[in-house]
Amino acid sequence: MNHEAVLMVRIYLAESQHLLKPLLKLLLVDLKVRGVTVLRGIEGYGPSGQHRGSSLLDLSLDLPLVVEFFDRPERVEAAIARIRDFVPPDHIVSWPATIASEDPAC
User: Fold this and answer.
1) What span, in angstroms and rounded, lies between the C-alpha atoms of 39 and 77?
2) Is residue 106 assigned to a domain?
3) Residues of the chain with pLDDT > 70: what percent?
4) Considering only CA atoms, which of 29, 39, 40 is closest in space to residue 79?
5) CA 81 to chain centre
6) What is the extent of the structural domain holding 15?
7) DSSP per residue over 6-46, as a string?
8) How many domains does the chain have?
């Protein structure tokens, strides 16, 4: 089994920012990163301390969103440089990781 070094990226958004669709287009069409997962939070707060949440009785339209992806370090660094154009830098977190892949010789 081979191991490949990658960078993981997590981007924190709020639905009310309306940044999800342009961000996904950038990641898919322009940057062609390996894959993206979007998670919709049920509750959270940011630096402003404004609480965002939902209950079974109401569905908020301003819930937290987490966009996560990984790729080779050079591709991720290029992606972060572009993402910073419209997402505040303190909403982008990255860390090194490894992925396991099948040995092509087997």
Assistant:
1) 22
2) no
3) 86
4) 29
5) 14
6) 2-101
7) EEEEEEEEEGGG--HHHHHHIIIIIS--S-EEEEE-SEEE-
8) 1
